[in-house]
Design goal:
Helix 3 crosses helix 10 and helix 5 runs parallel beside helix 6 (about 170-180). The protein is an alpha/beta fold. The protein has a six-stranded parallel β-sheet with strand order 3-2-1-4-5-6, with helices on both faces. The chain has two domains: about 40-190, Rossmann fold (3-Layer(aba) Sandwich); about 195-350, Lactate dehydrogenase/glycoside hydrolase, family 4, C-terminal (L-2-Hydroxyisocaproate Dehydrogenase, Chain A, domain 2). The chain contains eleven helices and 14 strands. The chain has helices spanning about 1-15, 20-25, 60-75, 90-100, 140-155, 170-180, 195-205, 250-260, 260-270, 275-290, 335-350; strands spanning about 55-60, 75-85, 110, 120-125, 160-165, 185-190, 215, 220, 225-230, 235, 240, 295-300, 310-320, 320-325.
Length: about 350
């Protein structure tokens, strides 16, 4: 194995002569490998035997770099490929991250082309511009849709998972799905995974309980029309609304705090990056380990909750074959109506850019 890795290093050093200095810095040492199998494998997906992860990230801005750091510190990533349209940026980030090798699992970090990312288990799309203060995610749509469409075309035939984090994530997940031609289960948006985490944090803080013991989902758009599902929320095994002292009249205010959280952060520091970096790293960790976790991520809906032909977040089982089984959420009438409105908003937004 060591000889094979050294041959790999030499071969790629010759291919990328301009990154010779990087190869001297990168951590080309072997990590542990363990065999896994997937009972949920489906035609067209390459289910590899190695549970260590090979991940590509396209777009090395605030979010891309946070995802990269989180992958190296929180997962079994053994190879991390970085790409950015800005000359030298991916190489610089790879060098910087590689210098942390003594503190991390063994891993290779290097710049790569889009064609080389076809070798990966998963590719994260973080390319595009950030939101501006006071701007909704849907205002970003026109600028970022063309970028994501080009990336999708370059990744046609890819054998792994595509994960979109660029905003507006739901619509861009749909754009990437169409451009890549991959099955819907293998094109996933981070969706309301982060909104759900934010809500659990907010409620946990209110109650003085660990957010890990708060069980509640935020569904719909990752944005202004998201739907906080209080009706089925629980603290441990107790319904939230049965919790002593819980005031249902405050639910709207708590939902608004989560809904506008990103705007508050952007107004103060210019972008949100750390939480989405960790959320994406754990999404990849759980998916590629085939843990079959139920997560609120965005994918093309095919009938659950009465929704079709729109990428939107519902609870879905996620494993190495992707977001394979969407679960029917238990919703009150008002929540279901709000979810339907959210879907219609996203459907119209996608229609505005579907023709390219």
């Amino acid at each position: 194995m060591l000889k094979e890795r050294l041959k790999w290093t030499a071969r790629h050093a010759n291919r990328h002569k301009h990154t010779g200095s990087l190869l001297a810095h990168c951590n080309f040492v072997l990590g542990c490998e363990r065999s896994v199998t997937s009972k949920h494998a489906c035609p067209g997906i390459d289910v590899r035997k190695d549970s260590a992860m090979k991940v590509g990230i396209v777009g090395m801005g605030w979010v891309g770099t946070s995802i990269a750091a989180s992958l190296l510190t929180r997962t079994t990533t053994r190879e991390l490929y970085l790409s950015d349209v800005r000359p030298g940026l991916a190489e610089g980030e790879a060098m910087d991250l590689s210098h942390a090798a003594p503190f991390l699992r063994a891993a290779v970090v290097r710049p790569a082309t889009l064609s080389e990312m076809h070798e990966c288990d998963a590719v994260v799309i973080a390319a595009g511009r950030n939101g501006k203060p006071g701007e909704s995610r849907l205002d970003l749509l026109r600028d970022n849709a063309s970028i994501v469409r080009q990336l999708g075309e370059a990744l046609r035939g890819f054998g792994g998972l595509l994960v979109v984090v660029t905003n507006p994530v739901d619509v861009l997940t749909h754009v990437l799905l169409d451009a890549s031609g991959l099955p819907p289960a293998r094109v996933i948006g981070s969706g309301t995974l982060l909104d759900t985490a934010r809500m659990r944090h907010v409620i946990g803080t209110e109650l003085g309980v660990s957010p890990q013991s708060i069980h509640m989902n935020v569904l719909g758009e990752h944005g202004d029309s998201q739907v906080a599902v209080f009706s089925s929320a629980s603290v441990g095994t107790m319904r939230l609304r049965a919790w002593a002292g819980w005031d249902r009249s405050r639910e709207t205010a708590l939902a608004e705090r989560v809904r506008w959280a990103a705007r508050e952060i952007i107004a103060r520091k210019g972008a949100t990056n750390h939480a989405i970096g960790l959320a994406t790293a754990y999404l990849l960790k759980w998916a590629l380990a085939d843990e079959q976790r139920v997560l609120t991520v965005s994918r093309l809906q095919e009938g659950a909750a009465g929704l079709r032909d729109v990428c939107i977040s519902l609870p879905v089982i996620v494993g190495r074959a992707g977001a394979t089984q969407v679960l029917e959420p238990d919703l009150e009438d008002a929540e279901r109506a709000a979810l339907t409105c959210s879907a219609e908003l996203l459907r119209r937004a996608y229609g505005s850019v579907a023709a390219g």
